[in-house]
Amino acid sequence: MSIMAIRIFGDPVLRTPAIEVVDFDRELRQLVKDLTDTMLNAPGAGLAAPQIGVGLRVFTYHVDDEPGHLINPSLDLSSEMQDGEEGCLSFPGIFFDTPRALRLVAKGFNQYGEPVMLEGSELMARCIQHETDHLDGILFIDRMDKAQRKLAMKAIRDAEWAGQEPPTIKVSPHAAFGTGR
Ligand code: ZN
């Protein structure tokens, strides 16, 4: 069981687009396990690799019974939207309304490199969009409307973790991947 440190807003790794996974190897499966353990321990509904400092297009989710993961995701979003409260493990204690597509179809791969497809609506769709955004360096505050974002930014400035020194980051996602653990 490996619980990793979750990077907090302000850490540049959260704004860095992640790269596609090409090697579906043992290290990748270890990453999926680390993400799953860290997400369940938090606990959270989802966790993307950049949130533990790894710049690869991998995330885990836990909305229904079983935790799952998706690698190199691509999303097909409904035009119909939903609104509702959203949070992020990289923004402890911050929850604000964030508009999202109501439904989606997500395609990608599992940890063995097999193609997978999942469909989701409401909370599941929200989670998958949120985590996929992380892989592009996009954060939920970017998806809020102007008024909500203003409130969120104030709450962030007032948060006890605001301005916290981010942990040291190894520069290349591959240099950090599979080393030092
Ligand atoms: Zn998040």
The proportion of residues forming helix, as a percent range, comes to 25-40%
Mean of residue pLDDT?
Answer: 92
Number of strands: 9
Which regions are unreliable across 5 or more consecutive residues at pLDDT < 50? Answer: 175-181
Give the overall silhouette: globular
Strand content: 15-25%
The H-and-E topology, N to C, reads as: HEEEEEEEEEHHHH
Helix-and-strand structural type: alpha+beta
Characteristics of this structure?
181 residues, alpha+beta, Peptide Deformylase, 5-stranded antiparallel sheet, two-stranded antiparallel ribbon, 9 strands
Layout: helices, strands, pairs:
Layout: H1 26-41, E1 46-48, E2 58-61, E3 68-77, E4 81-82, E5 85-86, E6 96-97, E7 100-101, E8 103-109, E9 115-121, H2 122-135, H3 140-143, H4 146-158, H5 173-176
Antiparallel strand pairs: 1-2, 2-3, 3-8, 4-7, 5-6, 8-9
Written description of the protein model:
By secondary structure, the chain is α+β, with helices and mostly antiparallel strands. It has a single domain (12-158), classed as Peptide deformylase (Peptide Deformylase). The chain contains five helices and nine strands; from the N terminus they run αβββββββββαααα. The chain has helices spanning 26-41, 122-135, 140-143, 146-158, 173-176; strands at residues 46-48, 58-61, 68-77, 81-82, 85-86, 96-97, 100-101, 103-109, 115-121. The strands form three sheets. The protein has a five-stranded antiparallel sheet with strand order 1-2-3-8-9. It has a two-stranded antiparallel ribbon with strand order 4-7. A two-stranded antiparallel ribbon has the order 5-6. The chain starts with 25 loop residues before the first helix and ends in a 5-residue tail after the last helix. Bound molecules: zinc ion (ZN). Zinc ion is lined by residues 88-90, 130, 134.
